[in-house]
Amino acid sequence: xxxxxxxxxxxxxxxxxxxxxxxxxxxxxxxxxxxxxxxxxxxxxxxxxxxxxxxxxxxxxxxxxxxxxxxxxxxxxxxxxxxxxxxxxxxxxxxxxxxxxxxxxxxxxxxxxxxxxxxxxxxxxxxxxxxxxxxxxxxxxxxxxxxxxxxxxxxxxxxxxxxxxxxxxxxxxxxxxxxxxxxxxxxxxxxxxxxxxxxxxxxxxxxxxxxxxxxxxxxxxxxxxxxxxxxxxxxxxxxxxxxxxxxxxxxxxxxxxxxxxxxxxxxxxxxxxxxxxxxxxxxxxxxxxxxxxxxxxxxxxxxxxxxxxxxxxxxxxxxxxxxxxxxxxxxxxxxxxxxxxxxxxxxxxxxxxxxxxxxxxxxxxxxxxxxxxxxxxxxxxxxxxxxxxxxxxxxxxxxxxxxxxxxxxxxxxxxxxxxxxxxxxxxxxxxxxxxxxxxxxxxxxxxxxxxxxxxxxxxxxxxxxxxxxxxxxxxxxxxxxxxxxxxxxxxxxxxxxxxxxxxxxxxxxx
Length: 510
Ligand SMILES: [Zn+2]
Ligand SMILES: [Zn+2]
Ligand SMILES: [Zn+2]
Known about the structure:
Number of helices: 18
Distance between the termini: 83 Å
Strand content: under 5%
Largest sheet: 4 strands, antiparallel
Helix content: 40-55%
Organism: Paenibacillus anseongense
Number of strands: 6
Protein name: TniQ family protein
Bound molecules: zinc ion
Strand order of the largest sheet: 3-5-6-4
Order of helices and strands: HHHHEHHHHEHHEHEHHHHHHEEH
Shape: globular
Structural class: mainly alpha
Radius of gyration: 29 Å
């Protein structure tokens, strides 16, 4: 280290800074900008906070072990940054992030954002090696929808290529040795000459973006923007786990009214007038639970009565949905294993071999539908009835379903007066998607349980790790149908061995 900025007084510091605001590009990340600043001034994060931290941080003694958040800019003095670096850092960052999240942000019924930053942004550095060689890091690289460099079409890297360390997206001296340099000494920035480094820092134009999907996404038409705003993403799944999220979301725009399906993109739509459909029971209950028929009790108590009927109907409907999925499975994948299923539920203590298909099926149903025991599945038992006064979703998916339910009720005053057809349609589409996924998971875990002679006590906990990416769309326009989209096959074809198949075929041979 040649000198420390800290030794100067404030006025002199600004004059002596080596800095040019022309080095900064649109969508350059705060992390990248600070690394440049550090590099040019032989400074570290502690120096940056001494210059640009808020009053409290500037006066703080030990800054070397601290970490500073680069998405919300807590603890920075934004005016000092603006005056010192010549860029309104905070607004640049805020506007660019708002643009990136444009069609994705939503408010829930408590008027709180449904998603937080960590749903959309990676908390460790992702980067394009070519861009980093030039000392450029973009906030695009942190956005989980983007997997390749929009400028170079190169797959983003998430680790140091030398030591595989991940570097947190924050301002800190804990993760790097020198600016743009990993703790293992690997250099991400490779200037041609240490003295002429700034020749390589030329502001890059957004016109250089070669990726069509990124271009389309950043320049949505008003119509496309409104359509995507009707989309609900499930925050319980990890966006970074899907390689084609951006392509998938863009493909929603290409889907107009036709029911085209290919191997990758599946769509189900409701009847266009689903929000206006009212069943007989529903009509009857709306008329029954009113002040006229219950003059003695207040509105809230009447609503509770109505809600009780309402939740029973929702519960019956999704229970029937899972039973329907089970029926479909028995007709297709499990058609050759019906005797295996019977054998397992009728002889639970059978010391004989167990078929992994049957095993997956009975335990999946036991835990999906709250059967008292796996031997009651498809035997004498039926799914447990609920008599509660609140909506109770399948235990295993309660978070997903509760969030979706709240979202669907977010702009409605009384959900018990909304069309149940629409509500059930949505909930059932999602329940069925989740349910098939749980069956897949149980199927892939079944052989290992059988080998250990153990029965599972719940569904596998890696519950959404392999679920095909899915979104729900609820148009604000009441005349448009609801949509459910997913990408990839729901049912994973498995090649497990059924022990009874081999017995049968051996018998047939001899
Ligand atoms: Zn690049
Ligand atoms: Zn390294
Ligand atoms: Zn079998």
